[in-house]
Amino acid sequence: MSDEPVLDALDLALLTTLRQSPRAGILELSRTVKVARATVQSRLDRMERVGVITGYGPDIDIVVAGYPVQAFVTLEIAQGSLDKLHRDLSSIPGVLEAYATTGTGDVLCRVAAASNAELQQTLLQLNGSAWVTRSTSAVLLSTVVAPRAMPLLESRPRPSASRAPAFRDPGREPARREVGALVPPRRVIAPLRAPGRRAARSRSHRCRPWSGIPGSPGRTACPRPAPLQDGPCPGKSA
To answer: Could you report the per-residue pLDDT of 159-169, keeping only the tens digit for each?
Structure first.
C-alpha cells in the first residue's frame, strides 16, 4: 500500500463541511470552501469511488430513538466458526455491530435494548447460538468519546490542493511580519528627462546675462552658485 495520503487539504475541508452540514448541496459546498462546483463534484466522486465516503445517510441516536440500554458483549466461539456465527448475529435485531478481535475473546458485539429485560433476552439469544461457547457482557453507562473520524484525518500533514488554486487552507495562515522588524528603504528612481528638453529654470533666479566683468565677451553666465535666491546678481556692477 502506498504511503501517499489519499486526502488533501481540500478533501478534508469538504468532509468537515459535510459533517457540520450533512444536507448541504454542491452549490453550498462550493461557496463554503470557495472552489468551483465542478471541483467539488469531482472530489466527492473520487472519495466515493475509493471508499472514503460510504454514504450520506442520517446519524441515528439510539438512546433518543428509544433504546437507552446498551452493552458490550465478548463472545468466545468454536474454532473456525466465524462465518457461521455471522449469520446468527445478523438475525438478532439488537446486535448493532460486531468485530473479530484478539485476546481471550473472539468477537466483540455492541447491543442495544429498550429495557434491562429486553437486554437479557438479547443476551440469551447470543448464548443460544451453537457456535458460542462463552459470553461476557458489560453494560454501557455513558459515552466518554462519541464515534468520530475527523480528528484522526486532520492529525496527519496533508499536501495542498494543487489542482484547486482558488482554495485557501484555513489551517495554514499566511506569514506575518514581526512587530519592530526592519523594513529596507525603498529606492526612489527619478523619472528620465525627455531628450532635447531643457530643465525649467528656477523662478527664484532673476539674474539675466550681463557683461560687467572686464574681458567678458558681452554675455556671461551668472556666477551665483546654485541654489540661488532672490536679489541682485552679485557679479553685476552697481
So the answer is: 665 555 556 66
CATH code reported for the domain at 9-50 = 1.10.10
Domain ranges of the chain: 9-50, 69-140
Say how many C-beta atoms besides its own lie within 10 A of residue 73's C-beta.
23
CA–CA gap between residue 140 and residue 9 (Å, rounded): 36
| This prediction's pTM | 0.63
> Nearest 5°: phi and psi at 234?
-65, -25
Q: Quick count: other Cβ atoms within 10 Å of Cβ 220?
A: 14
Q: In the structure grid, which three cell numbers stand for residue 232, read together?
A: 541682485
CA 141 to chain centroid: 36
Name residues whose C-beta falls within 8 Å of residue 41's C-beta, 6 or more positions apart in sequence.
26
Grid coordinates in use for 189?
528612481
Amino acid at 110: R
Average pLDDT over residues 201-222: 52
Query: Do 85 and 107 form a contact (C-beta atoms < 8 A)?
Result: yes
Q: Which residue has the cell 490542493?
A: 161
Q: Give CA 15 to chain center in angstroms.
A: 10
List, for residues 75-90, the tens digit of each pLDDT value.
Answer: 999 999 999 999 999 9
Whole-number Å distance between alpha carbons of 210 and 166: 71
CATH 3.30.70.920 is held by the domain 69-140: yes
Scan for cell 450533512, then name that residue: 22
Distances (CA, A) of 58 to 23, 27, 75: 9, 20, 30
**What residues pair up with 140 in beta bridges, in sequence order?**
70
Q: How far apart are CA 94 and CA 59, in angstroms?
A: 17
